[in-house]
Amino acid sequence: MVVGDGSWKLDLFRPWVPEEILNKIIGVPPPHPASGPDRIIWGATSTGSFSLKSTYEKVREGTFNLKERLWEIP
């Protein structure tokens, strides 16, 4: 999604994403090339590693709302 110089590769988005959304994407700085590839983290633990135990604890506490957290950006 980012070209070699670090800018957004908008041609990949244009066929599927409305122009007003593209304008919002343009307003977000692309990731720095030195930051490495994206990775998935689990916000319910300090290590970012998923566990059933941590999920159970959050559900039991009533602090876990999947709908709100599904697309949350860390």
Number of strands: 0
Order of helices and strands: HHH
> Span from first to last CA?
19 Å
Cα radius of gyration in angstroms: 17 Å
Overall pLDDT score: 81
Q: Domain count, please report it.
A: 2
Beta-strand percent range: under 5%
Helix percentage range = 25-40%
Sheet having the most strands: none
Our count of helices gives 3
Shape: elongated
Secondary-structure content class? mainly alpha
- Low-confidence segments, given as residue ranges, are none
Structure description:
There is one protein chain. The chain has helices spanning 19-26, 52-61, 66-69. The chain is mostly helical. It folds into two domains: 1-35, no CATH class; 39-74, no CATH class. The radius of gyration is 17 Å and the shape is elongated.
Index terms:
2 domains, mainly alpha, 3 helices, 74 residues, single chain
Q: Secondary structure elements and their pairing?
A:
Elements: H1 19-26, H2 52-61, H3 66-69
